[in-house]
């Protein structure tokens, strides 16, 4: 049992003091560094808002017998308004390495076969292109291989948030 000296007990308030007057909100945030699966695309919604969608491949885990790491694929949505940020995101080619901060949310839905499924939805809050892939003449690699093995060309002066 812990016994507090009487003089110290008076110095500690008996109730906890709140640091904010706003209600608490849950926070689910992800930070990803990966390569674009393809050029981001604009989807026009029925409500008139445009959403930019893209997939990001993130390497991780142990290496296999060929020395390759597994790739996890994440689908990301962005509601960037017209402007430089949006144009930069839409101009990034397949294989570009990016840093993305996104809000994460798990949603449940009914699949066509009647089973209940869960999906991870990521809403981009900020991004930073880190490097572009170099143009490669050999077409010996395809898809995920070209995303994970592409030589890099650093991007300088392109900040995005």
TrEMBL record:
It comes from the Eukaryota. Keywords: DNA-binding, Mitochondrion. Residues 140-150 have a biased composition (Polar residues). Residues 110-161 are annotated as: Disordered. One of its GO terms (molecular function) is single-stranded DNA binding. It is found in: Mitochondrion. GO terms for cellular component: mitochondrial nucleoid. SUPFAM superfamilies: Nucleic acid-binding proteins. One of its GO terms (biological process) is mitochondrial DNA replication. PANTHER family: SINGLE-STRANDED DNA-BINDING PROTEIN (PTHR10302), SINGLE-STRANDED DNA-BINDING PROTEIN, MITOCHONDRIAL (PTHR10302:SF0). This is Single-stranded DNA-binding protein.
